Amino acid sequence: MKTKKRNFQQITKGWNVIFNLIAGIFAFLCVFPFLFVVIISFTDEKTLATDGYRIIPAKWSLEAYRYVFQTGDTLLRSYGVTILVTVIGTIVSLIMISLYAYAISRRSFAYRRFFSLFAVFTMLFSGGMIPTYIVVTQLLHLKDSVWALILPLAMNAFYIMILRTFYLTSVPDAIIESGKIDGAGEFRIFLRLVLPLSLPGLATIGLFSTLGYWNDWFNALLYIDDPNKVPLQSMLMRIESSIQFIQQNSANSSISLAALQSLPQDTARMAMVVLATVPIIFAYPFFQRYFVQGLTVGSVKE
Fold first, then answer.
1. pLDDT interval class at 241 (50, 70, 90)
2. Which of 48, 99, 127, 218 could form a disulfide with 131 if both were Cys (CB 3.0 to 4.6 A apart)?
3. Boundaries of each ABC transmembrane type-1 domain copy (predicted)?
4. What is the pLDDT of residues 36-61, one digit of tens each?
């Protein structure tokens, strides 16, 4: 019996090593493209043109980052705008989505079907870009306002339905009933009982919202003309457009041929990807600590 048990443990240990090796290879394949982008951003542009993409460049260079940082305070200001919009937008989005999802998840809410269908309807049909632009600029007067970058993304019907399903499956009705027996109102039940049990769902929606705000550039293109309020993604997009404009109009440009050849192209694009991606990476550890399942196990005693 001991021999069989020992053999079983050895076989299990061998399979664990194999599975861990496969998981490690898969993780490396997921991370390697971004690491390769970082390497290319530090590669000399001329070397990249002659030798192509290499894991170990023949010549390292910071020219791409020098070109991007020529904007000086403008780039730092864009970082500040993006961070402000992302933080405030994520908080506003979580408040609105969590309240809406909780309301339509309550079976005692008389209009839950209507508001659920209303949310689903907006997933299938939208007002369109022109009506949205008129509402934001003419009705709400948010032109050149930071709120024009926040409010259009604050409500997402898909996130509402995800959180609604999480409430239905992860928050026992007995907990809500116990709050009612103790005399708590709806808001107190929501704040004291429901939210602590909903951290995994809220963290998921919060991460989605954070990525949406951080990567948003289209709303800035529509509503922001003030250069002091341009977010990071829109700023980097304008830098890339300026590079393309100079290249396409090189024949009519006063810039010398040598300067055009030394102008970073692919390396500058990779540097922009690095500058736009590295800060948001730090958001993942913050949200991942809440990705824990089974928080409601044992919370209700039969």
1. confident
2. 127
3. 79-284
4. 888 888 888 888 778 778 888 888 88
Residue 8 contacts residue 26 (beta carbons within 8 Å): no
Length of the chain: 302
Q: Which two tokens stand for residue 287?
A: 């949200």
Amino acid of residue 292: V
First vs last Cα of the chain: how many Å apart? Answer: 40
In 3D, which of 210, 240, 275 has the Cα closest to residue 78? 275
CB 71 within 8 A of CB 239: yes
Mutual angle of helices 112-124 and 73-105, in 10-degree steps: 140
Rounded CA gap, 138 and 5, in Å? 75
Amino acid at 63: E
Contacts of 7 (CB under 8 A, 6+ apart): none
* Residues whose CB falls within 8 Å of the CB of residue 147, separated by 6 or more in sequence, listed in order: 140
Name the token pair of 122: 């907006």
CB atoms within 10 A of CB 176: 19
- Express each pLDDT in 259-273 by its tens digit: 555 566 778 888 888
CA-nearest of 244, 10, 299 to 2 is: 10
Q: Among 208, 169, 177, which Cα is nearest to 293's?
A: 169
Rounded distance between C-alpha atoms, residue 109 and residue 184, angstroms: 17
